Prior knowledge:
Layout: H1 3-13, E1 25-28, E2 36-41, E3 45-52, E4 55-58, E5 60-63, E6 67-72, E7 82-87, E8 92-96, H2 107-115, E9 126-132, E10 135-143, E11 149-154, E12 167-168, E13 174-180, E14 187-193, E15 199-202, E16 218-219, H3 231-239, E17 248-252, H4 254-257, E18 259-260, E19 263-267, H5 270-284, E20 288-291, E21 295-296, E22 309-313, H6 320-332, E23 336-341, H7 367-370, E24 371-372, E25 377-378, H8 385-402, E26 406-409, H9 412-416, H10 438-454, E27 459-462, E28 484-486, H11 488-498, H12 509-513, E29 524-528, H13 548-564, E30 568-572, H14 592-596, H15 598-616, E31 630-637, E32 642-648, E33 655-661, E34 667-674, E35 680-685, E36 714-720, E37 724-730
Parallel strand pairs: 17-20, 17-30, 20-23, 23-26, 26-27, 27-28, 28-29, 29-30
Antiparallel strand pairs: 1-2, 2-6, 3-4, 3-7, 5-6, 7-8, 9-10, 10-13, 11-14, 12-13, 14-15, 14-16, 18-19, 21-22, 24-25, 31-32, 32-33, 33-37, 34-36, 35-37
Amino acid sequence: MSTFISSQIDRVIDCDHHDPFQVLGLHFIDQEPGGALVRTFQPHAESVQIVIGGQKQYMYKMRQEGLFEIVLQEFSEPFAYEFEIKYFDSTVHTIADPYSFLPQLGEMDRYLFNSGTHYELYNKLGAHRTAIDTIEGTIFRVWAPSARRVSVIGDFNSWDGRVHQMRSLEKSGIWELFIPGITEGELYKFEVRTQYRDLQIKSDPFQFYGEIRPKTASVVNSLNKYSWQDKDWLEKRAKIKPYDIPVSIYEIHLGSWQRDPGDPERFLTYKEIADTLVPYVKEMGFTHVELMPVMEHPLDESWGYQVTAYYSITSRYGTPEEFMYLVDLCHQNDIGVLLDWVPAHFPTDGHSLARFDGTALYEHEDPRQGAHPEWGTLVFNYSRKEISNFLIANALFWFDKYHIDGLRVDAVASMLYLDYSRKEGEWIPNCYGGRENIDAIEFLRHLNSIVFDHYPNVMMMAEESTSFFGVSKSTDQGGLGFGFKWNMGWMNDTLSYISKDPLYRKYHHNALTFSLYYAFSENFILPISHDEVVHGKGSLLSKMPGDHWQKFANLRLFLLLQWCHPGKKLLFMGSEFGQLSEWYCKTSLDWHLPEHEPLHKKAQDFVQALNHMYSDNPALWQVDFTPDGFQWLDFNDIDNSVVGFARLGFDHRDHLVCVFNFTPQVIYNYKMGVPAGVAYQEIFNSDLRQFGGSNVENSVPLDTIHEPFGFAPHHVKLNLPPLGGIVLKPLNE
């Protein structure tokens, strides 16, 4: 045996070889025409026989560590064979040789990945059930360019990294191994030897499923078993843009929307949630649900925002097929499904992405770029093409495999600015000396352009709290290319205003009206999200001033203003019935409140009626993002804390007049301008008795007085309810 071959064998036995196929498997002997040599490394084997066409021959144990070989004659071409292995515990198993197969990942796949443009990367990396030459098994691939050696480990090899050492696919940085006989449900991880010869045990970054916390193994799982029934929904979505349709989003944390009443510590499954959530959302009139992150994460208290497996549905609530059922059932009931998505940062958990191959692979090496001071997490290195590819392919994955209708991208502001939450000296300026993260900006533009190229009418939403230009403008206009941006300014100003005692609201009138100065600078969503009802902020109801009755009146008034204001709507679960306590991720919402407390049930009825009124009136949603859909009627009545405006449809004859009284006083015969010289009828009133109000209403049509008032050519006289709002609609001439 040559010194070279001996050294290569030593490297395999020491588990330090980048290509064990140079030693293991079938090799033809140049010096002996028709001669072949087969080697296998079986450290747990007492003996090994090679099986060819039903005939068995013992292999020679040439190294005590478990390296077996046999020299065969009269074989000049590849042939099929198996190993019959007798283990030290006397069990016997027959297996196909993983080292008898050629590389399966093509050069084009490798090139596209290293170029950052392999948008279906999830179909290649990770663990995929397949058959090669009629032999069924699973092919494993992982990216670890700086690793000395990578192995697949699992129950099938006693978690021993010596048994299934992978092959490095040249400069791509990808490691590959096909293991025959590995079936659905097998647990596995990757054992990585770093350049420093340390061993790391890592979960698969591309796993489709994993063990339930605190365990962290990946699970071989196909995503092609579910039979979808949402063809009609997908066809409708392909024809309709989300900008000019009603969008009323119900934000949900699956772990605390409801718990098992018989066992409050148990999470409901995706299917159990679906069977109660979907009828509720449909009855309440919401058009979409937005789910806080459902990707795998280790800590319940992170609410899913510290993701450890971006391609894996969390096993807390069940299987991928059960989650598909939830999405499918939503679609069959005309409810869109949006997901929170977190490409801004990831946790430092040892089994996940951090220093994956012993180097800063997914993150930056310099902590001034790679460590997030606010959350104790790591920041993705967007300048690396493979990382950009990992994230963009992940976004497409959720649309492709799970039929999702949109992604709300979390913490965009932290991505855009290098100095976000950092002190002087804790960040590195960009190459022009500025604070903008140029690589992240380019990543977001690339992301949105590719998503909309593949799925034109899905919703891409940015949670972005600064005045960065053009978040929801197209990339060819210099924007980031998102479809929508959360209006954090509206949220902060309006909550600040509504939380003040009505006696003092006149001194803060500008907080009520300021949002209309910039309302059309972006495609805004008006969010009242989970962030506003945690960490000592109290529930939405508890923010309202006054006695018990006034709190509910203010709540209804606030929500009516939100639904009438330009922009799409989002409301966090529990706010629709006046949840009393602050949200906590480990307990169910207080569903006993609407069941047993009249004002809570009437608040719930109000939101249901509000959603239906909203969907039934195109003037409230057809023109949300240009001034053509809005007209001030009066914003100057500071002393009475009253504002009025009109919402206009494509045809301005289709319009609504919205008037809001933020004081507890009833105002009779109040003059309010109107756009048209026709009679108006009240179609909605937050103060109706059925909603828990005092029932001050305008029960008969209001005749128009043809004299200008405020910013309108005509006006009407109406009754304004206390802490209430009304919506008027013109009667047909």
